[in-house]
Design goal:
11 strands, two-stranded parallel ribbon, alpha/beta, Rossmann fold, 7-stranded parallel β-sheet
Length: 278
């Protein structure tokens, strides 16, 4: 790509992905509210477009002259429901509309495995009907539906498992929930390196407009393992807690493997640990 606009470029996923785009020789423009937070990306070669994703003039300027858009912007955990709806849904759709108006049809929208809600008695597949609960997955589903319906937009949706690695504190933060889980409840993970390679594949592959892809590693980990990885003892009663839904959050990654040739660089968190990539 001659130039790719990345929204959400200073976030945990976006900042790492921009560096990968630049390393692969792509021109990159980043849309950020705070240019100071993008200073390192600018020093690495990214062009900075400053402004709010919710401002139409800012968005129109940001999409002008680019060849594709990757929207990694997300508002979740601790933000009001209205802000989640504003960023994840309304601003995402406005960005897609502005890009289309500017003649930029290639569009990648990042989403989450949380859109599915309860498990299906198996890993969820991309064509399963979402059953989101909570402002974040609800707003992501709404954005997915709206972006797909834009006539002429070559939209690709990518749903991430729980992202970690490369110094991201997310793995440690998982204990916010895992402390209360049954010892055998699992969390599906994906390393930043694999998020990056998946995004590149989804961005660059021709003829996949309208497709949705899951990205996750090969070995979801239990709450017991999350505690061990973080050097923390589990509560003595964790093994006796009931597990109502053993498949919640577990995704099938067959499609991205078979259609785009994706293979995890880090098939498990243990591979990443042993490689010093946590």
């Amino acid at each position: 790509m001659k130039k790719v606009l990345v929204a959400g470029a200073t976030g945990r996923v976006g900042s790492r992905f921009v560096r990968r785009l630049l390393a692969n020789g792509d021109g990159v423009r980043v849309l950020v509210r705070d240019p100071e937070r993008a200073a390192r990306l600018q020093a690495a070669g990214a062009e900075v477009s400053a402004g709010d994703l919710r401002d139409p003039a800012t968005v129109a300027a940001a999409v002008d002259g680019v060849d594709a858009v990757v929207n990694l912007a997300a508002a979740f955990r601790g933000v009001p429901d209205e802000e989640a709806e504003a960023i994840n849904h309304r601003a995402a759709v406005a960005l897609a509309r502005a890009a289309l108006a500017a003649g930029v049809t290639r569009h990648v929208l990042a989403s989450t495995n949380l859109v599915y809600g309860p498990g299906r008695g198996r890993p969820t597949r991309e064509d399963d009907l979402p059953q989101p609960a909570g402002a974040y997955p609800l707003s992501k589903v709404a954005a997915e539906h709206a972006v797909r319906r834009l006539d002429g937009l070559d939209a690709r949706i990518i749903r991430f498992a729980f992202v970690y690695g490369e110094g991201d504190p997310h793995l440690r933060e998982s204990l916010m929930w895992a402390r209360d889980w049954p010892a055998h409840q699992r969390l599906h993970l994906v390393h930043h390196a694999d998020v990056g390679q998946a995004l590149l594949r989804v961005l660059r592959t021709e003829g996949i407009g309208g497709r949705t892809y899951h990205v996750g590693d090969d070995a979801p980990v239990s709450a017991a393992e999350l505690h061990a990885l973080n050097g923390e003892e589990m509560s003595p009663d964790a093994a006796d807690r009931p597990l109502a839904d053993p498949w919640s959050g577990i995704i099938d990654t067959t499609r991205i493997r078979s259609e785009l040739g994706f293979r995890p660089i880090y098939p498990s968190v243990y591979t990443a640990r042993d490689a010093g990539a946590l």
